[in-house]
Amino acid sequence: MTAVRIETSGQKRPADRGGSAEPMIQIQDLALQYGDKPALKGISMTIPKNRVTAFIGPSGCGKTTLLRCLNRMNDLVDGVRIQGRILIGGRDIHDGAMDVTELRKRVGMVFQKSNPFPKSIYDNVAYGPRILGSRSRSDLDATVERSLDAAALWNEVRDRLHESALSLSGGQQQRLCIARALAVEPEVLLMDEPCSALDPIATAKIEELMEELKSRYTIVVVTHNMQQAARASDFTGFLLLGDLVEFGATETIFTTPADRRTEDYITGRFG
Amino acid sequence: MTEHTSRNYERELQSLKEKILLLGGKVEEMIGSAMRSLLDREPDLAERVIASDRAVDSEELEIDHLCLSLLALRQPAASDLRFIATALKIVTDLERIGDLAVNIAERSIELNEEPPLKPYIDIPRMSAAASAMVGKALDSFVKRDPELAREVLRADSAVDELNVQLFRELLTYMIEEPKNVSRALRITFIAKYLERVADHATNIAQMVIFMCEGRDVRHPGAQERAADGL
Question: Quick one: which of A71, A245, B123, B126 has the most CB atoms within 10 Å?
């Protein structure tokens, strides 16, 4: 094992363990306030392409806020102020020319609680492509199959595509939501505690899926479950009170973290 | 170090540390007793060393078991993970030191059945140096002190040199007179056992450096070769 020390201030660029990964998301001095309350305090980091990056930290540390910045979900919150730059694939997502709908197509999201639409399995997956103008039945069929297959759900639902999505189990619903996000062919997949409501088997399936999907997508996941970050991510960022304390290769963070606060948190000495 | 939020976990880690120390103290004492049995020609002391090996073996199993249940039930990370990994490794070194003390005691009994070949000069020096290394390695583990551990690493070559020197000297006894051979060989064995004790102390010290700094100092160059796929 090679211990890689990551700098703990300024620009945080992870040291890659398997060859160099090109950057996908560059966050530069990002600060966010809800009213007077600062939630993110000048975060800079580079998230590599085709890797799973996890954000960990105690409740209220800003990890979900940071995730939601990446597809401008925080724009919808009243009284929010955002400073700094976020570049995805080299493009500034706050640029006036950036269409938010186009951004959210490129940056898909899966939430803590699975939220399928009260429609059939097929219609859930076809929803995004239809909105984006896809009308051809054969194209839609192909997209639905490809997306369900990528989300490791096709074999379980291929004979019941027109049944209600709500008839699926919790784990299947979450994979359906992943399939729905994949149907519009995003570049980045954001996952906000995607397994917190799932049993260990369903969780293992989602983690396995993350491993498979990362060859085609860049995945950013927020998790309260440190073992999940340890198992499923390549890079881990530890946030505390709106600061990015440490960001580095997951193996390094979980064996030899550079910062005392990271050490205390992951060893259960926090607070 | 800040305490764990879970006090049970904290207690389990503390108990692991205490068990390692107790075992360390026990094997140190075994080396001392085995040497005294040789130098003072006291076979009873040697018998006691041989008898105490059973307790060392069962303590090793107990520590292994505790480490495994901590790994399975607590999923330790970072410094806790390194601490438990270190405990798992050094318990084997300690048990081996106990075995070597038994070997010294056995040779001591055999040697004490015959008149002394020569006054023991280098053997007590080797024993003192090797025991000091074990003591210091255990201290560095308790205090989480990598500098102390590095002192252990530096001390190893002196023990190796004493071993070589003693071997040369005993060889002259064997060449001089064939009936010296069996005693000279037994003393050579004891020197080798002590040299191995020092090696185990070195292993412990290397693991302590890993535990404290997360850096593996064993086999310099091997990591680079592994990274290059060699």
Answer: B126
Chain B residues with CB under 8 Å of A266 CB are: 77-78
CA distance A165 to A157: 10
Q: Is B3 helix (H, G, I), strand (E, B) or coil?
A: coil
Name the nearest CA neighbour of B94 among B62, B72, B70.
Answer: B62
Angle between helices B146-176 and B122-143 (to 10 degrees): 160
Fold of A23-115+186-266: Rossmann fold (3.40.50)
Altogether, the residues listed in chain B come to a count of: 230
pLDDT tens digit sequence for A181-236: 999 999 999 999 999 888 888 889 899 999 999 999 999 999 998 889 999 999 99
Question: Considering the entire predicted model, what is its pTM?
Answer: 0.81
Domains in chain B (CATH in brackets) are 7-223 (1.20.58.220)
B58 and chain A in contact, CB less than 8 A: no
Kindly report, residue by residue over A96-153, the tens digit of the pLDDT.
888 999 999 999 999 988 899 999 999 999 999 999 888 899 999 999 999 999 999 9
Task: Tell me which chain B residues have a C-beta less than 8 angstroms from the C-beta of A254.
Answer: 77-78, 81
d(CA B144, CA A46): 35
Largest Cα–Cα separation, chain B: 69
